[in-house]
Write a structure and sequence with these properties.
By secondary structure, this protein is mainly α. Helix content is about 75%, strand content about 0%. The chain is rod-shaped and about 145 Å long. Pfam families: DUF4296 (PF14129).
Length: about 160
């Protein structure tokens, strides 16, 4: 009896694991589009985290902006997100793809930043070089004072 009960429990466990934990929503966002949405949300969240004033300055809600861009609503996104998250392996693959995209963009942006820093350093070095090459003009009053002191004028009031 115990063996039968144990076998039945294991069998029910295997059968129940094959069922989808979350039903597929009617308006499911396609996997590729969902990855794009999640990528954009990740980028905007990173911007908001790094510089909160930048998002507040433009008075926009990053999530609402993304929903408009992809013509979806928050409920559709939430349902699709829950559906994709219900299968851990697929969801992890989606996030791995997002991370790969972020890393490739980061590499490109890092190289652009280095080029910009080199340009700025060269411009600074050139301006310093120009300052060193330009001769200093001496004070014009000091020159006049020296020439006045060198010329001795005859004192007309002095008795000779």
């Amino acid at each position: 009896m115990k063996k039968t009960l144990l076998l039945l429990t294991v069998l029910v466990g295997f059968i129940s694991c094959k069922e989808e934990a979350v039903n597929k929503p009617d308006n499911l966002i396609a996997r590729d589009k969902m990855i794009d949405v999640m990528y954009d949300l990740s980028i905007l969240d990173a911007v908001k985290y790094q510089n909160p004033a930048s998002v507040d300055t433009f008075k926009i809600n990053p999530s609402q902006y993304i929903y408009k861009k992809y013509k979806i609503d928050s409920v559709q996104f939430a349902q699709s997100n829950i559906y994709y998250a219900s299968t851990y392996i697929d969801y992890k693959e989606m996030y791995d793809e997002i991370i790969k995209r972020i890393d490739s963009k980061k590499t490109v942006l890092d190289s652009l930043v280095k080029k910009q820093e080199k340009k700025e350093a060269k411009a600074t070095a050139d301006s310093i070089k120009r300052i060193k090459v330009t001769p200093l003009k001496t004070d014009s009053l000091a020159l006049k004072k020296g020439s006045i002191a060198r010329k001795k004028k005859k004192d007309t009031l002095r008795i000779q």
